[in-house]
Amino acid sequence: MKAPIEGFSRLTKAQKIEWIAENCTENPKQTKQILKRYWNSDPAVQKLHDEFIENTISNYYLPFAIAPNFYINDEFYAIPMAIEESSVVAAASKAAKFWLYRGGFKTEILGTEKVGQVHFMFGGGTEKLKGFFDKIKQDLIKSTASITKNMEKRGGGITEIELRDKTDAIPNYFQLHCTFETLDAMGANFINSCLEQFAVTLKEKARSYSLFDEKERDIEVVMSILSNYVPNCIVKAEVSCPVEQLNEDNLSPEDFAKKMVQAVQIAKVDPHRAVTHNKGIMNGIDAVVLATGNDFRAVEAGIHAYAAKDGSYSSLTHASVQDGIFRFWIEIPLALGTVGGLTSIHPLVKLALEILQNPTAKELMQIVAVAGLAQNFAALRSLVTTGIQKGHMKMHLMNLLNQMGATEDEKTKLVNYFKDKTVTNASVKEALENHRT
Ligand code: MEV
Predict the structure, then answer these.
(1) Are 211 and 388 within 8 A, CB to CB?
(2) Which of 110, 145, 237, 284 could be cross-linked to 375 through a Cys-Cys bond (beta carbons 3.0 to 4.6 Å apart)?
(3) Structure confidence at residue 392 (pLDDT)
(4) What values do phi and psi take at 81, rounded to 5?
């Protein structure tokens, strides 16, 4: 960038593109062409995307794909995934097919509690604050009546407000730790609106509380915000089958089951492995979360915190062999929504939800957990048998060919050529060169 700019957001879209192209890129003409090539041909759809965020100059595409044949709680699903990594959808589909013939996936919701906090400083004694809190707790709830009315009609709302003494960690620091049931909404706006009202009411009530002295009346609210750590908004997904049904090409069923259990054990005890193990799980989770218009950053943050809940970062999946039965399962926190947010405005998000038979938030939690479990199963299955590079590089072949500027005819020929050969960067380069000469 040549120099900073004042008032970028007030420029028209054309002016923004002009500025970016001229100030930040080598070839302004080409920059403008690329940006415009990714505009939607329907102006109404483009306007929608322009208005999702500020300063939109184009759209950023990700492939939108389907992993079919998921059999979950005796229903079939085709799962939409938005992701750039070549082998993820293929791996999910393979795992889905594997378990389709072995009873499918079973899931269970273990909790749906969402969390938000008002963080504040209070200069007086804890006991006095407790007395005040007990007195005003109902006022806090009542003060949010206009915000909670509709949610309550549908069966949700504020479930609890707790005063937490955090003065051991920071002098004078307390929290209103609040829990919510937000039903099919992810609930961020609902929760944050309630919290900001709690903060106003808390301060107001303190100002007129007769048992407080001058200093105590001045509660200092630092911030009011939901927490993306939701350890009581939990879903469990599981697969299981008799060990003898785990037939692999190069391993006996017993050895395969043993290696799968060992692979999970390693991810439980070694954070270096756990991070990669869980990254593979997130390949599946993020792809569905993104396709269904949910906040993948929130999901990522919450899940990784959960993976470290026992004091050391560990595996999100578990595996066992008992009485001849192989079991493989995952337990994760997921705060998802199927109403609100992008769900009714982004055409592809709407379609993704329709493909999933318009699930409730609870149903979507179960589908997403299954996608994560399937992804981990596929990754470990490759890792303990053939290694991942074989499958991964096969899927990556098209990217390599595109990178090397192969024509359609060359791509067809080389994909065929590599059917029974090892794909590496060098081998593809060499094969393409040979083909061309
Ligand atoms: C690659 O995106 C994900 C894996 O590394 C996961 C794993 O190692 O378990 C294959």
Answers:
(1) no
(2) 284
(3) 75
(4) -135, 135
